[in-house]
Amino acid sequence: MNAESFVKVRVTRRYPASPEQVFDAWLDPAMIGKWMFGPALREEEVVRISLDPRVGGSFSFVVRRQGQEIDHVGEYLEIDRPRRLAFTWGVADEEGSSRVIIDIVPLENGCELTLTHQLHPDWADYADRTEAAWTKMLDVLAPTLALQ
What we know:
InterPro entries: ASHA1/2-like_C, START-like_dom_sf. It is built from three helices and seven strands; from the N terminus they run E-H-H-E-E-E-E-E-E-H. The protein is α+β, with helices and mostly antiparallel strands. Strands 1-7-6-5-4-3-2 form a seven-stranded antiparallel sheet. The radius of gyration is 15 Å and the shape is globular.
């Protein structure tokens, strides 16, 4: 399947932090547990966050929601600190994965992050929900970075 057939969700945010700080927030398990998952976003408990941040390395973010464990998994496809991070994104025990690309551009007073999530056409009905989830996560990232 070619890249044009994927449904793309895009969210852009500006942060008063260095590109390195923003990039590193994607690869630091403690940070991920504060802005990507956990009670700051929704009613859930972070069970385990593990990652091997290298091209070909994998990650597993396990959370408990409503008594059920959900394991978000993926593989790092590209790591170009502090400019670009690309990885697959899926849920363990469910078919199919998607691709997430993070592009970070330095600005005079911080940086701009653009997240592009490429969803398989079968998941097109989830595009709005996916955009809302990433929007909320990236909004929570700002105060999390400020506490560093």
